[in-house]
Known about the structure:
By secondary structure, the chain is of the alpha+beta class. Among the domains are: 3-93; 231-314, Immunoglobulin-like, CATH 2.60.40. 35% of the residues lie in helices and 20% in strands. The protein has six helices and 14 strands. Strand 1 (107-114) and strand 2 form a beta hairpin. Helix 1 runs antiparallel to helix 2, helix 4 crosses helix 6 (304-314) and helix 5 packs across helix 6. The protein is elongated and about 95 Å long. Keywords: Copper, Electron transport, Heme, Iron, Membrane, Metal-binding, Respiratory chain, Translocase, Transmembrane, Transmembrane helix, Transport. It comes from Halomonas flagellata.
Amino acid sequence: MLVGCSGDRSILDPAGPAAKEVAWLWWGMLTAFTLVFLGVVGLWLAAFRRRESPRRGEARERRLGLAWILGGGILLPGVTLLVLLAFGVPAGQRLLPLPLPGGEAPQVIEVIGHQWWWEVRYPEADGGEVITANRLAMPAGEPVDFHVTGADVIHAFWVPRLGGKIDMIPGRVNRIRLEADEPGVFGAQCAEFCGAQHAHMQLQVEAMERDDFEAWLAERRSPPPRAEGHDLARVAFAEHCARCHRVAGLSQGTTGPDLSDIGSRATLGAGVLAMEEGAIARWLAEHQALKPGNRMPAHDHVDAETLEALGAWLETLAP
């Protein structure tokens, strides 16, 4: 019963100011619900235990009925809604991209939902825009504005431990402000059903100190270092993959995830496979079995040796 109280996707283990307010609001609602539920059950049991009907006049019965209607049907819901608004509105305002005291502009990160992976862009990075996929880095200890949209269908951006969920709607940019109290790694999940692999659309969110965050961006401003050898893999990539996938300094494909730093990511397929030696080659050979319906075509026309060479080369693409 307590499995949801911790972990990288638990709203009951908040790691940011907005998330803490959401968690406290949830606990308050649970407490109030429990008290109301126990009260109703108590009255229900009391009614069954009574052996004789009370003798009351018609006027008194009418007054009692009116009291229950006014108290239970109007007063109790009214007070409950006012209390929820009193605490819920300030909690919701923390998630809005409102002007900060002092006029400072927060870090902006763009997140685009695809079936079924995440595109992450850093448009304000010094030296040019930085693009990655299925991994999001953010500075800790300061507010960050996320500009989110969908590329195909409606998705939803949700980092439970940081609070808030917002829809990602094609053709529209929605904004939400989140903050992590301290460095850490958090799980994120698409929270709007978006197709057969909705559950396998996960995102790793890493909060880090500002200096570490700037260094992380700087590592990705330049093309990945060229590993010796792998000539067969580069030729195969240019022939089979470059039109869909971007590798900085080599190709500009935009249909599939950016692969410029794929070797540094923790998982493949937006959380389907752990990144380890040989994992990319396996993904290339079995991706339709591992994540049925994803938009990358099967590679039946490519021999196993070439796929293994491609996988080994892609594993070297890390800053």
